Amino acid sequence: MNRLKLTSLLILLFTFPALSQTATDIIKKADEKMQGTSSKGEMVMKIIRPDWSREIRMKTWSLGTDYSLILLTAPARDKGSAFLKREKEIWNWQPSIDRVIKLPPSMMMQSWMGSDFTNDDLVRQSSIVVDYKHSFLNDSTINGDPVYKINLVPKEDAPVVWGRVEMYIRKADYLQLIVKYFDEDDYLINTMIGSDIRKLGNRVIPTKLEVIPAEEPENRTIIQYISMEFDIPMEESFFSLQNMKRIR
């Protein structure tokens, strides 16, 4: 390759960075940015309705995409309840009735604790990297920041609840600023907006996630991260039914 052609190629790659990486590459970077190899955190979920609101506080742990644990710490009536994911299986521990319930796949689309998040959103049964095919849509801007707009379509037989997902990922740092969720008939169901971008643990992330249902825009659910640690030592054995019952 002569020098002129090489120079032209380098200019092209720097001018249009999407040409040097696939849509899947970008999705992987965006997912790793929010998840890490492992994580531990505390957050507050606020469910807002026209005539009432409630707050739920929780602690979370995760290891890769196959293991996660959520412990509710408030309000008092829900304190101690926990949700555990191990690979493709999900359980709910309810200390008030001393019972462990295994959640069937049919429950993944249902509301989590009365919020606008689904069970799948919280325990991440499906993976945006593994379970979807990714393709570029037209690039866009959000608040003046250039973003990749990427279409996610479920792979055949993937354990997903959405018919399609659109992700708006900031080019500068691969942060997920907007995620739109569509049903199998391609109707918009929920829009999730990431904001309050700042450093938690060892990385900069959106620390506020707001979900707005398309058909009830006066409703919303807000998750505010209080603390997060990423890429910490953690073993698969931590994510056990026994630990789900005794974790505090």
Low-confidence stretches: 9-15
Strand content: over 45%
Radius of gyration: 19 Å
The SSE order reads: HHEEEEEEHEEEEEEEEH
Main structural class: mainly beta
Biggest sheet descriptor: 14 strands, antiparallel
Average pLDDT confidence is 89
CATH architecture of the domain at 22-64 and 112-230: Clam
As for the CATH topology of the domain at 22-64 and 112-230, it is outer membrane lipoprotein receptor (LolB), chain A
**Can you identify the CATH superfamily of the domain at 22-64 and 112-230?**
Lipoprotein localisation LolA/LolB/LppX
Number of strands: 14
What coarse outline follows from CA principal-axis ratios?
globular
Q: Quick one: CATH class of the domain at 22-64 and 112-230? A: Mainly Beta
N-C termini distance: 62 Å
Q: Any overview of this molecule?
A:
There is one protein chain. The protein is mainly beta. The protein has a domain at 22-64 and 112-230: outer membrane lipoprotein receptor (LolB), chain A. It is built from four helices and 14 strands. Strands 1, 2, 3, 4, 5, 6, 7, 8, 9, 10, 11, 12, 13 and 14 form a 14-stranded antiparallel β-sheet that branches. Strand 10 (164-170) and strand 11 form a beta hairpin. The longest helix is centred in the N-terminal third of the chain and has 13 residues, at 3-15. The protein is globular, with a radius of gyration of 19 Å. Mean pLDDT is 89; it is low at 9-15.
